[in-house]
Write a structure and sequence with these properties.
single chain; about 450 residues; alpha/beta; Rossmann fold; 15 helices
Length: about 450
């Protein structure tokens, strides 16, 4: 008989050496407890530990554990170092699963910055930690949100199955996942970096030492997010009300947003990726070589497209560097286990067309029978409600346990039923299908040095 969690550890020890040994075994196995988020403080015990890699692990074990485990991969990449409490915000946000009996574990990732394969390994380490210290689950599901969707896609194709055919993961669930892969996720930030410098000319300034834009910022720069916000606001006034912006700031902002198609409130967020994360990618992934190109891109939507395309800085990728980013962060599309991916039609940060790119990769890998995608319509990134999330997870669990493959229609119907027990709207659109990814962002020629 299988006994979940610490109960199993204690009973095993009891059969071997008696009650005293059981108590010692349980005490030795349990990690340190930590305060649970408010949403689950009365129904679960929370644990924390620091992994040997430097990552912080947070776990929650509900008192009514259903025997199943969610391994959560968080968004980002963060530009701030990880902390012991970093995962508690995600645990609180996605507490609906713990309230419904699922155990939950997540890694902070071992360091700030880019690294999809690194984050996937850290997330799998969290799964191993849970099994070693809290108990072996009956079923294990990967849940990836935003950038964590990409991390999760790489994790599933890498760690879901063992060489002997046994499984570490039984399924995957993504919400608002950046599942296009690192190459496409950063290509539009490449365009932003070049277009921004054309209009703003303050990273670098004309009187500062020059550096290639593909490096994001100067290699020896100590720029932090608050410094970036100041520089971008200097050029665009984006941190101030429209009435407080100068005419030049208004013109710069209108041109940048017109060319890129971003909402105003996400300009700094995308610039963060095109500067601080570019620096991290070049330093820690490609060994100082350029993985990015904007050769062949024709920009449009500005007040003078001819001048923009004539004078904007162009650069081509080192093929070896581009291959490194692809190997680290582009999903192959292989799905060894069932996956349910939900996404908002109106997601302002990770566009819904990302799901088209992922569908294409999964189909090319011959795994399309293991992927179901469904779409909501809130206008907030990772803003799905508790019943919307629970409907996706329930559909996945039924698929895993009963072999019943869900449909967008069945997920929507499940959401309607869950509103009786969970607060929040159901905004599924079962008929929706996203357009190709290339209809949203610029395409480019394959160019090398």
């Amino acid at each position: 008989m299988r006994y979940p969690g610490t109960i199993g550890l204690a009973l095993f020890a009891l059969t071997m050496t008696g009650a005293a040994a059981a108590q010692e075994a349980q005490k030795a196995a349990l990690p340190d407890t930590t305060a649970c988020p408010e949403a689950i403080v009365d129904i679960a015990t929370c644990y924390t530990a620091k992994h040997e890699t430097g990552a912080f692990i947070t776990a929650a074990l509900p008192k009514n554990w259903n025997g199943n485990l969610i391994v959560f991969a968080h968004g980002g990449p963060s530009v701030l170092p990880p902390t012991a409490n970093g995962s508690k915000l995600d645990l609180n946000k996605y507490s609906y699963a713990v309230r419904r009996g699922f155990a939950w574990v997540a890694s902070s990732y071992r360091r700030e910055g880019y690294g999809v394969a690194m984050a996937a390994a850290d997330s799998d380490n969290a799964r191993k930690f849970f099994i070693a210290r809290l108990g072996k689950p009956q079923r294990t599901v990967l849940h990836g949100a935003s950038y964590g969707g990409l991390v999760g896609a790489k994790l599933i194709e890498t760690y879901a199955k063992n060489p002997d055919g046994s499984s570490n993961f039984d399924g995957a669930f993504f919400n608002s996942g950046a599942v296009t892969g690192a190459t496409l996720n950063y290509e539009h930030r490449v365009d932003l970096r070049a277009v921004y410098q054309y209009y703003c000319k303050n990273m670098p300034r004309p009187d500062e030492p020059q550096y290639p834009l593909w490096n994001g910022v100067a290699p020896d720069s100590t720029m932090m997010l608050k410094d970036l916000e100041t520089v971008v606001d200097e050029c665009t006034g984006v941190a101030h009300p429209a009435a407080a912006r100068s005419n030049q700031q208004r013109q710069n902002l209108a041109n940048i947003l017109g060319v890129m198609g971003y909402p105003e409130n996400l300009l700094v967020r995308h610039m963060q990726a095109g500067t601080l994360l570019f620096r991290d990618i070049v330093k820690n992934t490609t060994g100082g070589r350029n993985p990015f190109s904007n050769i062949g891109v024709h920009y449009k939507g500005s007040s003078d497209d001819v001048a923009l395309n004539r004078d904007v800085v162009r650069f081509s990728a080192d093929p070896a560097a581009a291959a490194m980013v692809k190997a680290d962060g582009d999903p192959t599309g292989v799905l060894p286990v069932p996956a349910v991916s939900i996404h908002s039609i109106n997601d302002p940060q990770v566009v819904v067309e990302a799901q088209s790119a992922y569908r294409d990769a999964v189909k090319a890998a011959g795994s399309d029978d293991r992927l179901v995608q469904a779409y909501t319509d809130e206008r907030v990134h990772t803003g799905q409600s508790a019943p919307e999330l629970a409907a996706g997870l329930d559909a996945l669990m039924q698929w895993i346990e009963k072999g019943t493959k869900p449909t967008p229609q069945s997920i929507a119907a499940g959401c309607d039923q869950l509103q009786a027990s969970l607060d929040g709207p159901c905004r599924y659109h079962p008929e929706y299908a996203p357009k190709p990814y290339a209809t949203r962002y610029y395409t480019r020629e394959v160019a090398v040095r």
